[in-house]
Amino acid sequence: MDRETRTRRVMEGVKAAHDGMMASPRKRFKKPQDNPFDYDNMADGVRSGSRLHLGKAITLLESSNPEHKKHGQELLNRLLPHTGNSIRIGITGVPGAGKSTFIETFGEMLTSLGHRVAVLAIDPSSSITGGSILGDKTRMESLARNPKAFIRPSPTAGTLGGVHKKTRETMLLCEAAGYDVILVETVGVGQSETLVRGMVDIFMLLVLTGAGDELQGMKKGILELADAIVVHKADSHNAELAKKTVREYKQILHFLQRATEGWKTQALPASSLEGTGISEIWDMVKDFESTVKGSGYWKKRRQNQTKDWFNSMITDELLSRFYGDAERRKQVGTLEQKVLQDQLTVAQAIAELFE
């Protein structure tokens, strides 16, 4: 075959291939808007108890990306009818009281009784970098491996207000996923106790044996938030001292305002190391639930908590929109300098800012 013939046949083949491509329908690639977020699939996954879907749903809610936040809120809205069927327990404690050890032992006992337990651990975030340790899965290694438990560290991102919003929404998702006991561990730094008290049904305070010096430094306000005081680390060599500490707290509780209407705050000893007193604490929690539901205060408290949450979110949104305006931020900076240079009083600067 000569060169001219070979060239002609190659060109004919190229033309045939081109004609075939033009004749066949082209594959249509979907644009992003053609592939919407699959709310039904995600909601079904969460409700089926899938940890993967639950984790993804929580990440959507925690994201600062506006599109992710929008998807997260729509997903939460679809799951709201399946929330509220748990008992929410807040747990705080003095430094060294062994909160994580107690939660792990308590959670293991609850799962052995057939309950599904979610642990939402509030981790302190750096006010400088925004980073947090998020080490609760390491501290609760056994519970983290338990198929009936779910542990989610929640960074505060430097703001306690973030705890109030993110933890509440995460709690609702966990309830929709079938977790019937929600444990919320606080960082134990003062204001966070009040915020967590405002999102749980029963609030526990863990203390150590030997109340003397500890009581001197403990704020009365924290004691008045507690529905139960657990004298922890009541191990064999501390058993008698723990009983003495329990008696001391019971005497003090007579003079304090009750944390929950119709419920007398309890003081109990417990040892996570030996497993003693743990089942008694759960019996106390069930007694609390029965008593408070019977009086009608359970529903009233949850409604009040939701109203408080709603109002706190209004404040958060107003601040976000106020400082989100570039001109407003510039004006704030200018007025701030005038105040620092004694050119204006603070009240005059505020008046000028809102004129």
Automatic annotation (TrEMBL):
One cellular component (GO) term of this entry: cytoplasm
UniProt GO MF annotations: GTP binding; GTPase activity
Keyword field contains Hydrolase: yes
Record keywords: Hydrolase
EC number(s) recorded for this UniProt protein: 3.6.5.-
Source organism, top-level taxon: Bacteria
Pfam families attached to this UniProt entry: MeaB
UniProt keyword annotation of Plastid present: no
Family: Belongs to the SIMIBI class G3E GTPase family. ArgK/MeaB subfamily.
Protein name, as recorded: Methylmalonyl Co-A mutase-associated GTPase MeaB
